[in-house]
Each structure stands twice: as C-alpha cells, then as structure tokens.
C-alpha cells in the first residue's frame, strides 16, 4: 500500500467516525501536506490524521486529495480540486524543519475563486514527533475557526414598502377642480352681464352685453362636475380588508426573504 493510498484509507476512517454521515453542511478537501523527507512515513501519516481530526471537530466533512504533496498550489488548480471533491475550500499544509525545530503553515483557500481566506502559522522547537502532531492538530483547529461562516438562524426579514393608490384615482379630483373653475367663470360672466358694449354720440348706451346664457352654462356645468367628483371621492367603496394584496391606507407592505 502506498503512502497516498494509506493516508486516504486512514482519513476515511477518521472522517466517518467524526461526522457520522456524509450529509455534512460543508466540506473541506485536504491537499497532501508538504513535509521534510527526514520525517518517517509513519509519522507523516499520523500528522495527516491529526490535521484531519482538527478539521472534523467542527462537524465538517473532510476529504483527502490524491495529488502528490505540492503538486497543486495555483489558484486554478485548487479551484478544480475543490470542484472535483464538491468542497467549499481546500486546506494546504507546509511543514518545514531543521533538526527538531518545525514550522507549520496552513492555508484555507476558497474553492470558488482560489482566494486565501485563512492562514495559520505554528511551530515547535526541540519537539518530538508526537509534539509535531499535536501542534498540527492545534493549527488545524485554529484554521477552521477562521473560515467564513454563514449567518446563524433564519434569514432576516426585509420589509419592502411601496405606495400604491388605493382610492378612486385622480379623475374625480380633476372633475372637482374643473367644476370650481367653471363656477368661478360663471360668476365672472354674470358680473359682466348688462355692461355697455357701445355708446351713442350723446353718451347713452347703445348696446349691452348679454352673458346670461353663457354664465348659466358655466355655472351649471361647474356644479355638475363638482358634484360628480365630490360624490365619487366621498362615496367610493372602501377596499375589502380581506384583499390578499393587503393594501391599507393607500400603501402596501410586502415581506420577502433577504439572503
């Protein structure tokens, strides 16, 4: 059994025990960690298992990619890796060491755009291999804590208000205004009725204006328009409160989910 296959088998067992099901809400894919060649193969396996343990403790589903360590580091390659595993993000791990001093760097890469959204650096000096594993476990826990989280609970409600006319409309008001204007015009015509339009040489009035009929027409039409418009405004039927559109006092409120 090769190292890569062995890691996949071990990780599968760890993930199954930690998550209990494949229906986890989100998934991470763990790229093969880069480690010093001096670290024994058995220790490398244990370190990878401990990294996975630190990731799955938050209830995440974790997969392991079969690519050799360090073979996939570019943004486009990591996006393809995440898509192949159906994962939201990729975890990259690089462990460097000199003697018994080790440095660990972990990155969390967004699987949609290849952007680094989390980074952790840790290390241990004069540490044994088991301490290296525990350090990697702690770094994985911290990395998971940095991942972007969706808002908890139900999505917030967003109230959308929009004014909608629920009365009889503008036409009755136009009729009322027109009626008032005609009545005023009729009154003016009445005041002008009987005025002298032309005079004789001796100053007596020869012709007088006759505006009774135009004044009467204006007054009658104005009164009719004013009455009709007023009646429409005053006696327009009220909106049925059971109206599913829920319009109240000339406005409506609609509720929609805001994500």
Chart the SSEs and their pairings.
Elements: H1 3-19, E1 27-30, H2 41-56, E2 61-64, H3 75-85, E3 89-98, E4 101-110, E5 116-124, H4 129-146, E6 157-163, H5 171-192, E7 196-199, E8 205-208, H6 212-235, E9 251-257
Parallel strand pairs: 1-2, 1-3
Antiparallel strand pairs: 3-4, 4-5, 6-9, 7-8
Give a description of the structure:
This protein has three domains: 3-146, 3-Layer(aba) Sandwich (Rossmann fold), CATH 3.40.50.10070; 155-166 and 241-259, no CATH class; 173-238, no CATH class. It is rod-shaped, with a radius of gyration of 43 Å. The two termini are 47 Å apart. Helices cover 42% and strands 23% of the residues. The longest helix has 24 residues, at 212-235. By secondary structure, the chain is of the alpha/beta class.
List its salient traits.
two-stranded antiparallel ribbon, 9 strands, alpha/beta, 259 residues, five-stranded mixed β-sheet, rod-shaped, 3 domains, disordered C terminus, Rossmann fold, 6 helices, disordered N terminus
Discrete helix count: 6
Helix share, percent: 40-55%
- What is the averaged pLDDT score? 72
In total, how many beta strands?
Answer: 9
Annotated CATH topology of the largest domain: Rossmann fold
Quick one: overall form?
Answer: rod-shaped
* CATH homology superfamily of the largest domain: TolB, N-terminal domain
Overall structural domain count: 3
> How is the largest sheet built, in terms of strand order?
2-1-3-4-5
Main sheet characteristics:
5 strands, mixed
End-to-end distance: 47 Å
For this structure, what is the CATH class of the largest domain?
A: Alpha Beta
> In sequence order, what are the helices and strands, one letter per element?
HEHEHEEEHEHEEHE
Low-confidence segments: 1-25, 244-259
């Amino acid at each position: 059994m090769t190292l890569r296959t062995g890691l996949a088998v071990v990780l599968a067992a760890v993930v199954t025990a930690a998550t209990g099901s494949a229906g986890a809400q989100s998934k991470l894919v763990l790229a093969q960690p880069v480690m010093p060649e001096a670290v024994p193969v058995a220790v490398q396996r244990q370190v990878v298992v401990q990294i996975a343990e630190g990731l799955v403790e938050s209830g995440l589903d974790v997969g392991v990619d079969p690519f050799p360590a360090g073979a996939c580091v570019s943004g486009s390659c990591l996006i393809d890796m995440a898509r192949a595993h159906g994962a939201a993000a990729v975890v990259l791990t690089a462990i460097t060491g000199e003697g018994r001093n080790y440095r660990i760097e972990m990155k969390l890469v967004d699987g949609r755009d290849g952007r680094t959204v989390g980074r952790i650096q840790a290390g241990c000096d004069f540490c044994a291999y088991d301490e290296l594993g525990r350090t990697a476990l702690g770094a994985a826990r911290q990395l998971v804590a940095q991942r972007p989280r969706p808002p908890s609970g139900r999505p917030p409600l967003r109230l959308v208000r929009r004014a909608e006319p629920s009365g009889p409309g503008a036409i009755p008001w136009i009729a009322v205004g027109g009626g008032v204007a005609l009545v005023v015009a009729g009154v003016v015509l009445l005041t002008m009725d009987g005025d002298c339009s032309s005079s004789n040489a001796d100053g007596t009035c020869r012709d007088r204006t006759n505006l009774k009929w135009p004044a009467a027409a204006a007054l009658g039409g104005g009164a009719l328009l004013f009455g009709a418009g007023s009646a429409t405004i005053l006696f327009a039927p009220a909106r049925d409160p059971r109206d599913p559109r829920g319009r109240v006092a000339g406005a409506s409120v609609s509720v929609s989910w805001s994500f």
